[in-house]
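Closing statement on the NAP sub-project.
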Amino acid sequence: MSILIVGGTSGIGLATARRLAATGADVHVASRDAAKVAAIAATDPELVAHRLDGGDGPAVAELGARLAPLDALIVTLAGAEGSGTLAELDLDSLRRAFEAKYWPTLIVLKNALPHLAERASITLVGAVSAHAFLAGVAGIGSLNAAVEGLVRPLAAELAPRRVNAVSPGLVDTPWWNGLSAGEREAWFSAAAEALPVGHVSTADEIAEAVVLAATSTSMTEAVLNVDGGARFARF
Ligand SMILES: NC(=O)c1ccc[n+]([C@@H]2O[C@H](COP(=O)([O-])OP(=O)(O)OC[C@H]3O[C@@H](n4cnc5c(N)ncnc54)[C@H](OP(=O)(O)O)[C@@H]3O)[C@@H](O)[C@H]2O)c1
């Protein structure tokens, strides 16, 4: 089984890669940062890491052709901008957020498509902000709704290939590195109290759902909410 995870050198993507490699799959992870890509050889020698910008269509097509036929394509890339209440939202930051997540996701899908196996799976990652009753996420929520909105039409269009997404809540990954250690600890501990499950998710908890979506041969057109109940929490 040949698998490509774009965004797989960190966080949810890397946890997913480790789980899939443990099943004996041939797992390739890809991202932009040369240091992250190089680090994989030392920390996870069972994975093959590639330097790739998901926004670079020809580069995606070239890697896809080398790995074809791909049995599973998983996209876990993202930037970390775009939050804020409507009054405070920086529209340039939100535009950058779409450039960092929505457009590269679509570019990966379009350029990898010719290199997918006939019954391949595609798994995307959205976010609870697309569904939550939560102030301050109109921008980033509409971005994640756009990503999750790809699932249903593509599941119809690309069948018998399967297309799904996982929609996480708060996950302890380097995505939060923009906060200082103290800010992060304070936010995570307040969030843990507010969340119905009583804890902030680990990357591995989300990876479990990504692996299910990628490998369950009857699952298609699903958006799996794996958010610890964050949709209903009052932060
Ligand atoms: N962490 C959370 O609380 C949370 C909550 C809800 C949803 N999510 C979603 O979960 C997904 C994974 O996030 P994470 O928390 O695992 O973040 P992360 O640890 O920051 O990992 C993101 C990965 O994407 C790669 N990447 C970013 N832009 C890329 C591009 N253009 N091309 C290729 N690779 C790219 C990064 O590596 P390089 O820098 O080397 O490119 C990195 O490997 C994202 O879609 C995020 O929006 C996260």
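The chain has nine helices and nine strands. With this model delivered, the sub-project is considered complete and its resources will be redirected to Aim 3.
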